[in-house]
Amino acid sequence: MLKHELRKKYKNLRAGISPSQASDFSLILANHVLQIPIWDFFYYHIFLSIEEQNEVDTLPIITLLQGKDKNVVVPKVSGENSMDNYLLTDGTAFRKNKWGIPEPVDGITVPEEKIDVVFIPLLAFDALGNRVGYGKGFYDIFLDKCRKDTLKIGLSFFGAEEEPITDVHENDVKLDYCITPEKVYAF
User: Fold this and answer.
1) Of 24, 78, 139, 176, whose CB neighbour count within 10 A is largest?
2) How far apart are CA 138 and CA 136, in angstroms?
3) Average pLDDT for residues 6-20, to the nearest whole number?
4) Is 133 annotated as a binding residue?
5) How much of the chain, in percent, has pLDDT values that exceed 70?
6) 5 annotated as ligand-binding
7) Annotated binding residue at 4?
8) Is the per-residue pLDDT at 42 higher than 90?
9) 88 annotated binding-site participant
10) Which tens digit of pLDDT belongs to each residue from 100-122?
11) This model's pTM is above 0.90
């Protein structure tokens, strides 16, 4: 299937999930994070959910990471297709950007090469670890700046597409894992 077809399909599927279901699924995903061998690292980048898009609520994962004394890093759009990364602290103030994404107003920046684990927003993924985002390329550009051994973990309410995504580009970055309410996929 093509990316634009998958975007449409999964936006519709996500729109059909109630707020209560989304909350329940998000808690299940946070519990599944415990199954992945990521606990010996220091810097964990995680997106902040777009509530209006019915995305996975990442707050339970952030709470889990903070409870394990991990350094949590959150993104802020800094250019046409680029992001800066800010250390999440008790004093971090947020403001929503033009897409409804909560972003840190300012703070301590963390360079990409320090980030060990990245939790990635997505709309769909296939059994090969290819993912479909919103199509702006922010995460592909960001992940290209990270170390090659940085772990990339997708979060989805839905399982893998059975058919491979057919219009994967050479600069598309594959996932190492994807967590769904039903299972954890390893690629």
Assistant:
1) 139
2) 6
3) 95
4) yes
5) 100
6) yes
7) yes
8) yes
9) no
10) 889 999 999 999 999 999 999 99
11) yes
